TrEMBL record:
<dbReference type="GO" id="GO:0003677">
    <property type="term" value="F:DNA binding"/>
</dbReference>
<dbReference type="GO" id="GO:0045892">
    <property type="term" value="P:negative regulation of DNA-templated transcription"/>
</dbReference>
<dbReference type="Pfam" id="PF01614">
    <property type="entry name" value="IclR_C"/>
</dbReference>
<dbReference type="InterPro" id="IPR050707">
    <property type="entry name" value="HTH_MetabolicPath_Reg"/>
</dbReference>
<feature type="domain" description="HTH iclR-type">
    <location>
        <begin position="2"/>
        <end position="65"/>
    </location>
</feature>
<dbReference type="InterPro" id="IPR029016">
    <property type="entry name" value="GAF-like_dom_sf"/>
</dbReference>
<dbReference type="InterPro" id="IPR036388">
    <property type="entry name" value="WH-like_DNA-bd_sf"/>
</dbReference>
<keyword id="KW-0805">Transcription regulation</keyword>
<feature type="domain" description="IclR-ED">
    <location>
        <begin position="66"/>
        <end position="245"/>
    </location>
</feature>
<dbReference type="Pfam" id="PF09339">
    <property type="entry name" value="HTH_IclR"/>
</dbReference>
<keyword id="KW-0804">Transcription</keyword>
<dbReference type="InterPro" id="IPR014757">
    <property type="entry name" value="Tscrpt_reg_IclR_C"/>
</dbReference>
<dbReference type="GO" id="GO:0003700">
    <property type="term" value="F:DNA-binding transcription factor activity"/>
</dbReference>
<dbReference type="InterPro" id="IPR005471">
    <property type="entry name" value="Tscrpt_reg_IclR_N"/>
</dbReference>
<protein>
    <submittedName>
        <fullName>IclR family transcriptional regulator</fullName>
    </submittedName>
</protein>
<dbReference type="InterPro" id="IPR036390">
    <property type="entry name" value="WH_DNA-bd_sf"/>
</dbReference>
<keyword id="KW-0238">DNA-binding</keyword>
């Protein structure tokens, strides 16, 4: 048991040397002196506990949120947050609506950064929420590969009709995903709360690494210039992506 703990710590320390640069399984195993099978098993446990994050199938590993939380370090996804901060402030000033930068962890949408409007009536959203039940989460899921989505739905199931009415069956789910991919836009109206959220992708190189969203009470959305909101949201996401390139 002690040996396994030491090996896990060795892996975390190796990845922490350059926490935002994905490390391949083979490189990690060689660096800490483990065979690939043993290293893969330890990594699987560390990923399940959020100390390590797997970027994608065969795309490498970075430090996870729990590794940062242990020390009170707020540098999780620091590169994305730094690229987005000024742009999100600008967007909020321009439209006077709340904006949110988010990523996906398991089946949860997690907030990386948020800005607030000056309206008296503020829409609040949790730091962590079921991905199916947010515009950001739906957008991020849509940019998984088909193979990744098969694994995702096998593990977490399809959304229930009360959460995502248009995607409650396998056929509907695929249609909803295809629409988001084509439009590069997810729109959600939260049933019962009268809140509308819109989300677009943020890319680093050719990979979607986060979502940028804007959300507001439904009554304000109904009277706003919707085309302008979407265009400004896209423009901001594109500028953030350019900073990450």
């Amino acid at each position: 048991m002690i040996q396994v703990i030491n090996r896990a710590i060795d892996i975390v320390e190796y990845i922490a040397q350059d926490p935002d640069k994905p490390k391949a399984l083979g490189d990690i195993a060689d660096a800490v002196g483990l065979n690939h099978g043993t290293c893969a098993n330890i990594l699987k446990t560390l990923v399940s506990r959020d100390f390590i994050e797997q970027i994608g199938a065969k795309k490498g590993y970075i430090l996870g949120a729990k590794a940062y939380a242990l020390t009170g370090n707020d540098n999780y996804r620091k590169d994305i947050v730094e690229a987005a901060t000024d742009e999100m402030d600008r967007l909020t000033t321009l439209l006077n609506e709340n904006t949110l930068l988010a990523a996906l962890k398991g089946n949860q949408r997690i907030v990386l950064l948020r800005t607030f409007s000056e309206h008296d009536l503020q829409v609040r959203t949790p730091d962590q929420k079921d991905a199916y039940n947010t515009a950001s989460g739906r957008l991020l899921l849509a940019f998984h590969t088909d193979a990744e989505l098969v694994k995702y739905t096998a593990r977490y199931g399809l959304p229930t009709a009360d959460i995502w009415t248009e995607a409650a069956s396998p056929g509907q789910f695929q249609q909803a995903i295809d629409l988001i991919r084509r439009e590069e836009l997810a729109i959600q109206t939260t049933t019962g709360r009268q809140v509308v959220g819109l989300a677009v992708p943020v890319r680093k190189a050719d990979r979607v690494v986060a979502s940028l969203s804007i959300y507001m009470p439904e009554y304000r959305y109904m009277v706003t210039d919707k085309a302008r909101v979407v265009q400004e949201l896209r423009n901001t996401a594109n500028r953030i992506s350019a900073r990450l390139a």
